[in-house]
Amino acid sequence: MDKTPADIIYPCPFSKGYGIPVRQAWLLLRVYLSYRLILASLFLGVMYSQWGGSLISVSNRPLFFYTSHGYLAVSLLSAVCVAWRWTAYSVQAQLLLFSDIFLLTLIMHASGGVNSGMGALLGVAIASGGLLIGGRCAMSFAALASLMVLAEQVVNGIKGGASPSSYTYAGMLGASFFTIALLSHILAKRSEQTLQLADQQKHTIIKLEELNRYIIQHLQSGIIITNKSQQVQMANDAALRLLAWSVMPINLSVVSAQLALAFAAWIGDPARDSLILQRPDQADIHCRFIPLPTGQAFFYMVVFEDIALYHQRVQQSKLASLGRLTASIAHEIRNPLGAISHAGQLLSESPDLPVEDQRLTRIIETNSKRVNHIIEDILQLSKRTDSRREKIYLKPWLAHYMRNFLMANGLGLAAFDLLQRDDTLCVLIDPNHLKQILDNLCQNALRYGKPELGAITLQVRYVRNMPCIDVLDNGPGLATEQIKHLFEPFFTTSSSGAGLGLYISKELAELNQAKLSYHLSNENRSCFRLCLPDANQTVIEI
To answer: What's the structural domain count of the chain?
Structure first.
């Protein structure tokens, strides 16, 4: 993440590319002030000490006295300004460096000139300028310091206290100032780049952590992280939603005794890594156990999936296997079936064929068409591709669907009654699959639901926090034994049906994580209920 201008200080007006983070800039200024206070204290200590004369040779004691006290006073005043930030950073840093160059030059002059060695302290000031200010300003301070040294040398020369070699030393000292300024500027730039890189990496890590947390919390599958003692370390929103918990459980046994026993059994036998968690009056949950070894500790992940999602994945595998099987069966059956149908047609066209035999040829033709229709249905099922689910608002979609269905079947508006009140109800499903499922249910209602007794009802409502479509007809209902086999392939109560319509509808529903079921309504009407995933729930599918 890039820093905003408020996070950066540009101390030098001639070098806008050189920026220091605010916190780091003021910290450097405080360190430099601490150095100045220590240096001023040392000057005064040397002056008042009885060993001062052996440490520093002072040629102008009054100048050294007043300049040292002025140096301490300026440093203390600057410390107050920096502590309370009464002045801007750039102003304060430049004032410190200007006063450093001026006052240290005076102290150097009071100590005997460039030969006293005090010029080295100006090098520290120039290096500090490169760190605190940088850019062209640092070179300006180096130039100023060089001029001050040369001016001091000229003054000494006028007084007759400068030797010819001291001019050479002054020139070398000035050159060193420029070198120090350049090196400190380069060092400051590299330090700035390193700091910015570390800051960018820090923000990148924070972003990745937030992204990982978002993904985990919005996964379609529930996740619980636990240790070997079954103490829950973390649980995402999907897990709490599937388990009907509002807060994170303490351990697995609180969630379910069946789950705790299965986890303990998996620890002893890693092959037993899944179970179906059965709950009364609620949908079953498929659970998987996965080890999570880390460098610090060993954790375990329990993955919870809605049984509809689990069935969807099983269904995809089933359809893939069915496709390979039916491709070969269709070829083997269609060829002899075509020969039988063609022979029956030729036989029926014979003018000398008795009436009894003509009836037999019609039976051959009818049953050949029926077998061919069954093969077409099986091939249609086996060629199913993965569902391309979309967000669909049910009210306008169903109204449009019902108009087309009535028109295609030549029915009047009174044949069906569409009941839906919620305009915002939306589901996640492949619209082509939803149309095929409803076509099958509505056709069955017209065929077996006694539409002459009243309109067939399509009702939309919430059931267990899922949007559902109920198709209610006026049929007498099915026996308990028939309900057990209702969605099995080739099961039918009609002599003309293939018995694949409801089976295909249920397979398509599971392919979209939906659920198709049958029950009798409170008014003893046959009701097929299609419960669909709610598109308003934000989840990430993997």
So the answer is: 4
Same domain as 43, residue 146: yes
Cβ-proximal residues to 69 (8 Å cutoff; 6+ apart), any chain: 44
Dist CA 210 CA 206 (whole Å) = 6
Compute the Cα dihedral for 63, 68, 69, 75 and give only its sign. Answer: positive
Residue 494 corresponds to which tokens in the numbers above?
């009609």
Residue 369, domain extent: 310-382
pLDDT in tens, 461-517: 888 778 899 999 888 777 777 777 777 776 676 655 556 778 888 888 888 888 898
CB neighbour list of residue 302: distance below 8 Å, 6 or more residues apart? 223, 224, 225, 226, 252, 259, 263, 287, 288, 289, 290
Tell me the C-alpha to C-alpha distance, in Å, between residue 6 and each of 1, 19, 22, 294, 339.
Answer: 14, 11, 8, 40, 86
The DSSP letter of residue 114 is G
- Mark out the alpha helices in 272-416 (DSSP H runs): 307-348, 355-382, 394-408
Record the tokens describing residue 16, joined without a space. 């806008």
The answer to whether the predicted template modeling score (pTM) of the entire model surpasses 0.85 is no
Same domain, 296 and 352: no
Please name the amino acid found at residue 8. I
Tell me which residue of 380, 392, 384 sits closest to 430, measured CA to CA: 392
Query: Which residue intervals of 349-430 are DSSP H helices?
Result: 355-382, 394-408
- Separation CA 21–CA 23 (nearest Å): 6
Sign of CA dihedral 360, 363, 369, 375: negative
User: Residue 232's domain is classified under what CATH number?
Assistant: 3.30.450.20
Query: 163, 114 in Cβ contact below 8 A?
Result: no
Other C-beta atoms lying within 10 Å of the C-beta of residue 452 = 6
Instruction: Give me 461's structure tokens.
Output: 């409502």
pLDDT digits (tens, 9 = 90+) for 163-221: 666 777 778 888 888 888 888 777 777 777 787 788 888 888 888 888 877 777 767 77
* Maximum average pLDDT range among 129-143, 230-244, 286-300, 436-450: 436-450
Q: Average pLDDT for residues 42-59, to the nearest whole number?
A: 73
Among 434, 484, 433, 480, residue whose Cα is nearest residue 460: 434
Which residue intervals of 458-522 are DSSP H helices? 480-484, 501-511
Q: Mean pLDDT, to the nearest integer, of 58-64?
A: 83
Q: Higher confidence at residue 267 or residue 464? A: 267
**Are residues 483 and 402 both part of a single domain?**
yes
C-alpha–C-alpha distance, residues 524 and 234, integer Å: 47
For the stretch 95-128, pLDDT in tens is 888 898 899 888 888 887 777 778 888 888 888 8
d(CA 528, CA 331): 35
Is the domain of 141 the same as that of 13?
yes
Q: Residue 45 has which token pair?
A: 């200590």
The one-letter code for the residue type at 466 is M
CA gap 66, 73 in Å, rounded: 10
Rounded to 5°, the CA angle 118-122-123 comes to 110
Whole-number Å distance between alpha carbons of 95 and 17: 22
As a whole number of angstroms, the distance between CA 402 and CA 422 comes to: 17
